[in-house]
Design a protein that fits this description.
The protein is α+β, with helices and mostly antiparallel strands. It contains twelve helices and seven strands. A hairpin with a 5-residue loop joins strand 5 and strand 6. It is elongated and about 75 Å long.
């Protein structure tokens, strides 16, 4: 006996889109998660900024690929080749997969909304309890707040605010504060908080494999290294000064917790030794990552060429029909 639910034209398209989304997301997520050590190793041999871009692109590839498949193949093939008629039956398997996709999207959106609320609440509390002050080297007023921890953080996604504890401001010299501000300015120019939001938004279908989490952790590390490099401006004296600043902050105690959508000067205490050693040693790799960018452009061109072929849409439509059985 065949089981299923009868759907109209639009509802059937929605079911197909959700099922296709979760299948493509799972397939790409599995490939990326299994190959994560390769990408992490490759990124570690690049310049910090290029390596961070590579890991971010690969980490977001499953979500981007799934959305692109639905938007450029699933929906067009259905609208072109599926006749608009009465209700049709959708199989149990396709319904279950579609519900999984709906659940993944709902969970991802809910997690992202929670992160945005925590970030907005943190900034609002700092605005209510802190004092806005002009500090040379930063283009907008800085929120000076009371606190025992050495906090210097860029909080918020679209219009981030710089948060600075009074204790840290008083502990740093003018030169040390200037290089610390350049570090946060590098995060602001690179829109690292927005990238953090995208990482929170992108679901992990196979969290037990740990590959995507490892890539996210390495991305965070490289993002800090890149901000260190840009703050030092390629000058050995500034690298030493930034290393001194990091050590001075660490001696003041733990920075405490800041929202995940924040770029903090001391966001990773376990990486402090590596950052200081890197700054004092002046170690910087020379690979630029242009080869990876060129490969990505060529791959995108190949995919675009395939999408222009009607046979591809017909094949996708046939696969979708089998999925709905």
């Amino acid at each position: 006996m065949n089981f299923g639910v009868a759907f109209g034209y639009g509802a059937r398209l929605l079911c197909l889109s959700l099922a296709s989304f979760v299948l493509v997301l799972a397939a790409l997520g599995l490939v990326v998660s299994v190959s994560a050590p390769v990408w992490i190793s490759l990124a570690g041999r690049m310049r910090a900024r290029a390596g961070a871009r590579l890991l971010l692109s690969v980490r977001l590839a499953p979500l981007a690929g799934a959305l692109a498949f639905v938007a450029s193949l699933c929906v067009p093939s259905y609208l072109w080749l599926e006749p608009e008629r009465g209700e049709e039956r959708a199989g149990v398997v396709s319904l279950v997969v579609a519900l999984i996709g709906l659940g993944l999207l709902a969970w991802s959106l809910a997690r992202s909304a929670r992160a945005l609320r925590r970030s907005a609440r943190f900034v609002r509390e700092c605005e209510e309890t802190g004092v806005a002050a002009e500090i040379p080297g930063w283009q907008s007023p800085v929120l000076i707040v009371e606190g025992h921890g050495p906090v210097l953080a860029l909080a918020g996604v679209l219009r981030p605010r710089l948060i600075l504890t009074r204790r840290l401001r008083d502990a740093l010299s003018h030169e040390q504060l200037a290089v610390a501000l350049r570090h946060e300015e590098a995060h602001r120019r690179s829109h690292d908080n927005l990238k953090r939001f995208l990482l929170v938004l992108a679901p992990d279908v196979f969290p037990f494999l740990g590959g995507l989490r490892a890539m996210e952790a390495m991305w965070g590390r490289l993002a800090e290294w890149a901000a260190d490099d840009e703050a030092a401006e390629g000058r050995p004296g500034e690298s030493v000064r930034l290393a001194e600043t990091l050590l001075r902050c660490a001696r003041l105690g733990s920075a405490g917790s800041v929202p995940e959508l924040s770029a903090s000067l001391l966001c990773c205490d376990d990486d402090l030794a590596a950052r200081v050693e890197r700054l004092l040693g002046g170690r910087e790799t020379s690979r630029s990552g242009i080869g990876g960018l060129l490969a990505g452009v060529l791959m995108a061109g190949g995919v675009a060429a395939l999408l222009l072929q009607p046979v591809v849409l017909r094949s996708v439509h046939l696969a979708l029909e089998l999925l709905m059985e």
